[in-house]
Specification:
Number of domains: 1
Shape: globular
């Protein structure tokens, strides 16, 4: 299992926003954290289907955002 990472404040806010949404599902359905995340990802795929969006394309863009948010800010901190 990967170790937990200390997040920058702006990324902590992002994580908290989605955690709040997932926590409701965990409360209602008695899910473990990993199960709630898995279900949320599957539900997002269904939502994309309903709206004619390609989940894989959006996921690739999301990964680019995540990489930028996580690593570019760390790189900038090191250069200071």
């Amino acid at each position: 299992m990967p170790e937990k990472i200390k997040l920058k404040p702006e990324n902590q806010k992002r994580a908290s926003r989605i955690y709040t949404a997932l926590d409701m599902g965990r409360y209602l359905f008695g899910q473990e954290e990993s199960e709630a995340i898995t279900d949320a990802l599957a539900d997002l795929r269904h939502l994309c289907d309903r709206h004619g969006l390609v989940f894989g394309d959006l996921d690739r863009m999301a990964h680019e955002h995540y990489t930028t948010e996580r690593y570019v800010s760390q790189f900038r901190e090191r250069k200071k």
